[in-house]
């Protein structure tokens, strides 16, 4: 009976660790699966086309730019214009006074697109190209490794940008405590270069297939814009990045995995719902254990 009591006593801690692990992996798997599905579509569309280097650069740049603006407008002008949706999707607990995002200017858009095109040109010129076809297993594995490594590279880069010697480079991005989706692209030119380098490092490690790269840039824009929107729609399961903007410290990664590893995680409020099954499961398990009578119930 003693062993039985011991197991019941330790079960909540074990489940908590398991659910925390599932919480972290859920985000990575969502990214990997979504990218893989989109890559399969890209493969069907592009497989029979002979794309030279310039064609690949233009395609990569156009898909990245079009998806960035269209997804941002969808969040800001459609989703946020419905109060019921906004209230349902908001995770933020600490309310912050809203700040209007500066109006887009033609000069700003042109400058941004020139930077994006140059970045696409450099990435595809320097990175090794590898044709991986339409294998689901190979592509899923590539995207999973890509997001985990990209998260680590971003964590290191972002944490360095919060050191005394580099923080001035990052201040433009932190002009907004209550963020709009488009804050994702609101950064100084030097920070843009640093973050771009951090983002392309995994491509040099794993190589790229143009169908993979186009899928990655769309899904990357979705979670990046969602992460800066103060909403929890599909990929973002908590107020993780909201807290970083509010408090200007901690929560340096794309997601919370590496912040847990390096102990820089601020306590997060998790969004429950069908889009976030781990959080929903954790909430139900907490309710079960809160209502249980512990070892006494087992001993009966």
Automatic annotation (TrEMBL):
Transmembrane spans: 58-79, 100-128, 140-161
Keywords, in A-Z order: Membrane, Transmembrane, Transmembrane helix
Please provide an example of a Pfam family that matches this protein in its UniProt record.
FA_hydroxylase
Q: Where in the cell is it found?
A: Membrane
| Principal localisation | membrane
Domain Fatty acid hydroxylase intervals: 145-264
Q: Tell me which stretches of the chain form a coiled coil.
A: none
Q: Key word Ribosomal protein present in the record?
A: no
**PANTHER family, from UniProt?**
STEROL DESATURASE (PTHR11863)
Can you name this protein? Sterol desaturase family protein
């Amino acid at each position: 009976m003693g062993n039985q009591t011991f197991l019941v006593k330790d079960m909540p801690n074990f489940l908590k660790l398991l659910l925390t692990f599932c919480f972290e992996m859920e985000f990575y798997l969502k990214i990997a699966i979504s990218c893989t599905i989109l890559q399969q579509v890209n493969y069907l569309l592009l497989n029979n086309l002979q794309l030279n280097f310039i064609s690949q650069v233009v395609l990569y740049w156009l898909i990245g730019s079009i998806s960035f603006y269209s997804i941002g407008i969808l969040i800001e002008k459609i989703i946020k214009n419905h109060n019921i949706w906004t209230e349902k999707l908001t995770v933020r607990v600490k309310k912050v006074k809203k700040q209007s995002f500066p109006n887009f200017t033609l000069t700003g858009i042109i400058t941004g697109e020139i930077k994006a095109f140059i970045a696409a040109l450099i990435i595809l010129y320097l990175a090794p190209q590898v044709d991986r076809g339409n294998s689901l297993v190979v592509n899923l594995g590539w995207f999973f490794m890509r997001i985990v490594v990209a998260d680590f590279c971003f964590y290191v880069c972002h944490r360095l940008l919060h050191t005394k010697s580099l923080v001035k480079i990052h201040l433009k991005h932190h002009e907004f405590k209550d963020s709009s989706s488009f804050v994702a692209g609101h950064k100084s030119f030097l920070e843009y270069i640093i973050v771009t380098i951090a983002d392309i490092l995994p491509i040099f490690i794993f190589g790229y297939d143009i169908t993979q790269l186009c899928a990655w840039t769309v899904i990357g824009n979705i979670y990046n814009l969602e992460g800066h929107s103060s909403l929890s729609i599909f990929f973002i399961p908590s107020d993780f990045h909201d807290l970083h903007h509010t408090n200007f410290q901690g929560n340096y990664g794309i997601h919370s995995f590496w912040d847990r590893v390096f102990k820089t995680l601020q306590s997060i409020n998790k969004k429950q719902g069908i889009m976030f099954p781990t959080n929903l499961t954790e909430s139900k398990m907490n309710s079960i254990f809160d209502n249980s009578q512990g070892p006494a119930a087992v001993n009966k």
